[in-house]
């Protein structure tokens, strides 16, 4: 082989780490290497088909695209070749020497800790390196389609610390990978073994996969196609079994888990398209990363156009996997045109409805599976009310909560269930937001609701306060934060409106002293009957920003106005009665400041000056 301009490179440190994991501990199921390499070859052919729409010369007068596998038992090699788009010299260095994906380091660290390493690695999409599980050496010959024959590249490595790259002549476009097998991997030199693996993992690859057979009698070689090479989504639903749908999902996503549910639809009429949508069982490791790629695989008239087409689903449905194959979009469509395309908008409406209906079906037919979905993706779905007001009712039915009657942090209560268990006098859905489930569950705001057996939704995810701003009502019942003033509560608690003249003079004087000492730090001071055990509490005015919303603004670096609370005092509390009897003005002032700080700590979870609070408390304890 005529090689020129040979250079030796070191692998990026993350690649070395990954190769070490691959070779020594990663795939218990070694045969997956073939699935990964076939998948890469199929993608290369898909990319050629797409690029050739605008540049037909890339085909180099050969439109017969295929993947070929040949075995040489004497040399102990497997050769996997495709006549797809191919790579330039620079492509091989960038694609096979580095992993340019954010979060790589943290991903590899989690790999080291995780027992299900084979599940994570497929998700990460570095299938080429799986070649080294069964190979001592890997050699790759490639040439970018449409470039001169003498611009081919040879990439070689023993999977240790380095690889070398040379210029070669390669007459055919595409990529050819030669695997030099380890001594103990001879099983993969058997044609029947390779055929079984292809049928198991790659039967529905749309490109013909052919294996080279040798006829001992006639001493001749021939090529035999071993996969169906028919796009699964184009088949009639009745002809596809459950196992095939699951296998196709794994091929499409690199996820090793079965999907929870899927929806396959052929739509005809003004809009002609096929959609195949899946709901995964497990969230990908990088779903919260800013550069997490999501969206559907897009085909136009069976021609692959692009991966991760985000334009067909909103951000709150970024966990939905699958593809869309449209007959109406132009073949040369770009991401920019997709965004402003009327057909795209119509498809998006239909796919959003289909996705939400699929989840509705899952929640009704298989609550256990829906709970698996909610535990993985509930936080993402909670973005829906703010993003998609048109489908708010569908989304509301899919939300899950925990509540005081639930007595568990697991969010498994639907709004329908909450309403079905309400008393006939209750006309609101009560909720509280807090930093944690424990904090919400033990809030003094709940005392009145416990006393009257009224259920309250406990919301402790960071997104909850923001989400609740977009939830106005559900089936005619308005949402009400219990940390806000609510004059209608007395209707269901049957508590009489509290009157100051019903209480001893000491209480009324105490109320005046509190107003005088706290001054404009509070909006109002008043007696309350909403407490049973707690001496006092802070609530927000019905028109004011809540504490949790202020925390969200502050965390986002936005300025927050000073919150002015209503300070409510429980006149039946023994501590309040005791403090009312204190005649020493200085000591009374200390107690009032302490009560206010206690309430502030309970409401906000922190104080501006905790040391002053501790010093005041210690001083009063000594007395």
Automatic annotation (TrEMBL):
Molecular function GO labels: ATP binding; ATP hydrolysis activity; ATP-dependent protein folding chaperone; unfolded protein binding
One cellular-component annotation, GO: cytoplasm
Residue numbers spanned by region B: 336-551
Keywords: ATP-binding, Chaperone, Cytoplasm, Nucleotide-binding, Stress response
Region spans: A: 1-335
Keyword Transcription regulation in record: no
Any one Pfam family match given in the protein's UniProt record, by short name: HSP90
Chaperone in keyword set: yes
Region annotation C: where it falls in the sequence: 552-623
Domain Histidine kinase/HSP90-like ATPase: 29-185
Protein's cellular compartments: Cytoplasm
Residues binding ATP, per UniProt: 36, 40, 82, 87, 95, 101-103, 175, 335
PANTHER family: HEAT SHOCK PROTEIN 90 FAMILY MEMBER (PTHR11528)
UniProt function note: Molecular chaperone. Has ATPase activity.
Subunit structure: Homodimer.
Family statement drawn from the similarity comment of this UniProt entry: Belongs to the heat shock protein 90 family.
Name this protein carries in UniProt: Chaperone protein HtpG
């Amino acid at each position: 082989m005529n090689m020129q301009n040979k250079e030796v490179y070191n692998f990026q440190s993350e690649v070395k780490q990954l190769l070490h994991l691959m070779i020594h501990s990663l795939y218990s199921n070694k045969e997956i290497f073939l699935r990964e390499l076939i998948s890469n070859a199929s993608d290369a052919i898909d990319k050629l088909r797409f690029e050739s729409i605008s540049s037909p010369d890339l085909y180099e007068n050969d439109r017969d695209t295929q993947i070929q596998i040949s075995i040489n038992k004497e040399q102990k090699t497997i050769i996997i070749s495709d006549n797809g788009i191919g790579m330039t010299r620079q492509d091989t260095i960038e694609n096979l020497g580095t992993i340019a994906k954010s979060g790589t380091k943290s991903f590899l660290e989690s790999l080291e800790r995780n027992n299900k390493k084979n599940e994570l690695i497929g998700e990460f999409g570095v299938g080429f390196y799986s070649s080294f599980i069964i190979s001592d050496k890997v050699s790759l010959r490639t040439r970018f389609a449409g470039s001169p024959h003498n611009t081919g590249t040879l990439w070689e490595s023993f999977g240790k610390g380095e690889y070398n790259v040379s210029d070669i002549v390669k007459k055919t476009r595409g990529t050819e990978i030669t695997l030099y097998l380890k001594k103990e991997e001879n099983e993969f030199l058997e044609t029947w073994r390779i055929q079984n693996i292809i049928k198991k993992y790659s039967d529905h690859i749309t490109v013909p996969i052919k294996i080279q057979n040798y006829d001992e009698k006639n001493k001749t070689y021939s090529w035999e196609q071993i996969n169906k090479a028919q796009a699964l989504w184009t088949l009639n639903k009745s002809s596809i079994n459950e196992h095939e749908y699951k296998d196709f999902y794994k091929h499409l996503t690199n996820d090793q888990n079965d999907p929870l549910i899927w929806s396959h639809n052929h739509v005809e009429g003004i809009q002609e398209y096929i959609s195949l949508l899946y709901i995964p069982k497990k969230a990908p490791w990088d779903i919260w990363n800013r550069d997490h790629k999501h969206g559907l695989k897009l085909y136009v008239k069976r021609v692959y156009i692009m991966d991760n087409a985000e334009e067909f689903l909103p951000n709150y449905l970024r966990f939905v996997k699958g593809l869309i194959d449209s007959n109406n979009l132009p073949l040369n469509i770009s991401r920019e045109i997709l965004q402003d395309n009327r057909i795209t908008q119509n498809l998006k409406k239909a796919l959003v409805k289909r996705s939400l209906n699929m989840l509705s079906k899952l929640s009704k037919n298989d609550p256990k599976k829906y709970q698996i979905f909610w535990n993985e993706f509930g936080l993402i779905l909670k973005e829906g009310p703010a993003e998609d007001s048109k489908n708010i009712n569908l989304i509301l039915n899919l939300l899950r909560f925990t509540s005081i009657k639930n007595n568990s942090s697991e969010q498994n209560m639907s709004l329908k269930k909450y309403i079905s268990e309400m008393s006939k006098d209750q006309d609101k859905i009560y909720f509280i937001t807090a930093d944690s489930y424990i904090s919400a569950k033990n809030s003094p705001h709940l005392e009145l609701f416990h006393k009257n057996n009224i259920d309250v939704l406990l919301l402790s995810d960071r997104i909850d306060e923001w989400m609740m701003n977009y939830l106005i009502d559900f089936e005619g019942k308005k949402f009400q934060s219990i940390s806000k003033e609510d004059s209608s509560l007395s209707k269901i608690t049957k508590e009489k409106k509290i009157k100051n003249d019903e209480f001893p003079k000491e209480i009324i004087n105490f109320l005046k002293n509190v107003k005088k000492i706290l001054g404009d730090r509070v909006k109002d001071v008043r007696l309350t009957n909403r407490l049973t055990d707690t001496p006092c509490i802070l609530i927000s005015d019905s028109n004011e920003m809540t504490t949790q919303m202020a925390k969200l603004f502050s965390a986002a670096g936005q300025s927050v106005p000073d919150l002015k609370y209503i300070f409510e005092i429980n006149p039946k509390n023994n501590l309040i009665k005791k403090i009312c009897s204190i005649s020493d003005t200085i000591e009374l002032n200390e107690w009032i400041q302490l009560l206010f700080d206690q309430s502030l700590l309970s409401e906000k979870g922190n104080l501006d000056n905790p040391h002053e609070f501790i010093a005041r408390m210690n001083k009063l304890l000594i007395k």
